[in-house]
Design goal:
single chain; alpha/beta; D-Maltodextrin-Binding Protein, domain 2; 2 domains; two-stranded antiparallel sheet; 15 helices; elongated
Length: 438
């Protein structure tokens, strides 16, 4: 055990002192915080300006239907198409919306001319306005008042309530649970591959440099493998926790310094635009929205999610890292690992692919068995946990993952102790089976 701890300490300190670790530890949070902060800053600083759009309507159906807003100013014009194009080229207008006289009953094609690329807002507004007016004309032609259709439209809010075994009730939010499950499972997927690959590369590097021959003269190959795996696991956990703390700190600092000003520029501009379009927000509706946000926050069991994430991250990593270490010991260079990587990584890829089906039926038999199998449980169980998993299922899955780690470590150790000193020989599955039976 003392030798394993010494190897663990060496692997941990060697990697955390590397410049690449220090740079990525501080650069990662900056990039993640920038993804949240930069769009807010750009949205508050951008000055789109008002675009002048000429509307040439040969049908006369849409006169007065295009309302000018904060960024678009519509002007209805007369004359021929060519002369209006000239006005666009000379800069009198930024764009020309041309609605030709239809050959049949209604205009089917609309053209927008501009000397620059038009915005999606203008294109979408033109399409929706014309579509709505044509539909209204069809309804009037059939003797139906379009206002009756608008009044008949109803928004229904479906609230899901979970009944607990003790008879209590709690609100659940499926969209939040789906997003949280997919996000945590993808994080585990990337971390297992990222740090598992580091184990494999480290083993290959020590093997090719022949330093391994000196090391195994003092420690057993199994002790070396376990020290390397657990040391890199602690490196990954350290980096992840630092990312979380630093990202939260950077984002909190930005909110404290620039929050009020950005809020005034960002949300204030949006509120102004909404008021210009005569949208009135009811105070009770706002209070209800705020209440729903707090309900969503309180509906998440952060304790079980954080604990499960750390456990399945470490358990999944230790299981796969043992297999990666075995692969690294069996080959002489990284190019030879491809034939062994696919069978090892296939369960993880399968878990990510099937997670889309699991979120639709998190309590089904497929979700249950995939969350019990150690090779797929780190992915699938993290998808299921936000939906609520019985304690006995969670405990059974964790116990099986620990058992799977012990079995794969024993299996990988038999390959590792032979392959680590094997040079210049192309290894296949038949050869690996011989090493396991030694």
């Amino acid at each position: 055990m003392n030798k394993i701890l010494l190897i663990l300490q060496r692997e941990y300190l060697t990697r955390v002192k590397k410049k690449s670790f220090i740079v990525m530890t501080f650069l990662g949070p900056l990039l993640m915080a920038a993804l949240m902060v930069v769009p807010v800053i750009l949205a508050s600083l951008q000055d789109v300006g008002k675009k002048k759009v000429a509307v040439l309507d040969e049908t006369t159906w849409f006169t007065g239907k295009f309302e000018s807003g904060e960024n678009l100013e519509f002007t209805f014009v007369d004359g021929d198409l060519e002369s209006q194009k000239e006005l666009v080229l000379t800069g009198a207008f930024d764009a020309l919306l041309y609605i030709p006289l239809p050959e049949f009953n209604v205009p089917a094609n609309v053209e927008i001319f501009s000397n620059k690329q038009i915005s999606m807002t203008l294109k979408s507004l033109a399409r929706n306005t014309i579509k709505t007016e044509i539909e209204n004309q069809k309804l009037l032609g059939a003797g139906i008042d379009p206002n009756l259709i608008k009044e008949a439209r109803t928004t229904v809010n479906v609230q899901t309530i979970r009944l607990e075994e003790d008879g209590s009730e709690s609100k659940s939010y499926t969209e939040v649970q789906v997003g949280l499950g997919i996000f945590t499972s993808i994080l585990i997927y990337f971390f297992i591959f990222l740090f598992g690959a580091q184990v494999m590369r480290g083993v290959i590097e020590e093997k090719t440099s022949r330093i391994i021959e000196v090391i195994v003269s003092s420690v057993k190959p199994f002790q070396l493998m376990m020290g390397k795996i657990t040391g890199i696991a602690l490196v990954g956990l350290t980096q992840f926790l630092l990312w979380v703390v630093l990202t939260a700190g950077i984002f909190g600092l930005f909110t404290l310094i620039f929050g009020s000003e950005a809020a005034l520029k960002g949300t204030g501009g949006m509120q102004g635009a909404l008021m210009e379009q005569s949208f009135q927000v009811d105070q009770s509706a706002s209070q209800q929205m705020i209440s729903q946000v707090f309900d969503v926050i309180h509906s998440i069991d952060y304790g079980i999610i954080i604990f499960s994430f750390i456990f399945y991250f470490l358990g999944g990593y230790l299981l796969y890292a043992a297999l990666f270490a075995a692969i690294g010991s069996a080959v002489d260079n990284e190019a030879d690992t491809q034939q062994f990587m696919l069978p090892v990584s296939l369960p993880l890829i399968l878990g990510i692919v099937l997670s889309n089906f699991v979120v639709n039926n998190p309590d089904g038999p497929i979700a249950f068995w995939l969350s019990m199998i150690p090779l797929t449980s780190p992915i699938i169980m993290m998808v299921r946990i936000p939906f609520g998993v019985p304690i006995y299922e969670l405990a059974l899955s964790m116990a099986l993952l620990i058992g799977g780690f012990l079995f794969t470590t024993w299996l990988a150790g038999k390959i590792y102790r032979t392959g680590i000193l094997m040079y210049g020989k192309k290894v296949n599955y038949k050869e690996l089976w011989k090493w396991i039976r030694y």
